[in-house]
Write a structure and sequence with these properties.
single chain; 18 helices; mainly alpha; globular; Sodium/glucose cotransporter
Length: 495
Amino acid sequence: MSSHIISMIAAFVIYLVGMVLIGLRESRKMASSEDFFLGARSTGPWITALSAEASDMSGWLLMGLPGVAYLGGMKEAFWTAVGLIIGTYLNWLLVAKRLRKYTIHAGDAITIPEFFTNRFKDKSHLISLVSVIFIIFFFTIYTASGFVACAKLFNSVFGIPYAGALVLGIVIILSYTIMGGYLAVCSTDFVQGLLMFLALVITTIVGAVSLGGPAEAIERVNALGANFLNPFVGEGFGTMDIISALGWGLGYFGMPHILVRFMGLRSNQEVRVSRWIAMVWVVIAFIGALLVGAFGRVYLAPVDLAASGAQETVFIEALLKMFPGFIAGIFLCGIFAAAMSTADSQLLVAASAFSRDIYTVFLNKTATEKQSLLMSRITVFAVAAVAFVISLDPGSSIFSLVSYAWAGFGATFGPLVLLSIFWKGATRNGALAGLICGGITVIVWKQLSGGIFNVYEIIPGFAVCMLVAVIVSLLDKPGDADVIVEYEAYQKLGD
């Protein structure tokens, strides 16, 4: 084994030991299921902002998006990034403070399904049941994307067989998620968010300098093909494609693993600080991811990663070529950090949804805190097991897996979150109908192709969910008077 590989292994070991130690430290603070799922609403603005963005971006930011830019230039990658930047800002601006305030007011809900149930006074708990089904379905797909990113990383860097690399990544992710719960996830995500940010920024700068400076780098990339870096011109990429790419921004309003960060913030006064920290991180990180993919086409030449379908490893290959072993290893941990930061959050949200909204409501109404936590951990293992099976195909596309899950959450939960916090006329039947129709629209649309069906499924799914929820609510009989009273009381609450 070469000294280069030994140095990278040392960097990974130091990093991973640190993450596990954080999990052990936070596990000592956990006294109840609320601590496990929401950290007793005690996280500050920096941890909230960076953990929200780190869990949001996943391995998709460091592998999926650079891979799209490497393969086809800016035409799709740029507009997707723009949609996500706009969505991030609007989510922090419109949803964060209101959702945190309302979840506390509505029975101190600590999961999104529980909030919907309390918000609409759903005694049947059907909204919770349907919500959890969609959460587990789409999070299993989303979690699989993180597992694929880990496997591709270990396979590319250390030559570990794909299946073995997949198992190694899953074991590490599960270890500290199971031990420490929400606080462990947020604390590790904070560190991982910083590492992802530094890895992108430094790699972009070094890459540009290596190519002769920014101007020379841009000129050399554009020499690959006309307007490679021009997002407004692209063969086979028209107006509908731009709309589809921008549609990614709609997903933010329905992402449980991001929304739960708003709920866990310790004070509404800190939302504004968190918002600007998050926006600076997101804008710079996206610029870095786009340029890493584009510059990688020239920097890694004559190697053509696309020829073998390995374009999503462009960031990995660039790091290996740019830096000595230990430094490359540290930055490569940023990719692992990205995958872990999303997978752990998704596993935790899926566990909380099942334990709080299915197990203690339908299966064991007298469950103790100990039993609830045990069921949460069992759910984490179950979701991880199914995601593992999905991840076994080495040809799996991180971008495609994330795209499908992102659409699912955006279309099923996004409109309901917005209606819940902004419209007192929304009813239980409207919410349930919208939830079901939005989710089914995404699943069906995904299976179709050609013509209008080439539009990203989040757009029709979001529209159907919103339209159905509004129409059914307007046609519905007057709902529970307590719903209106509680909504009006929430509106009057201060920060």
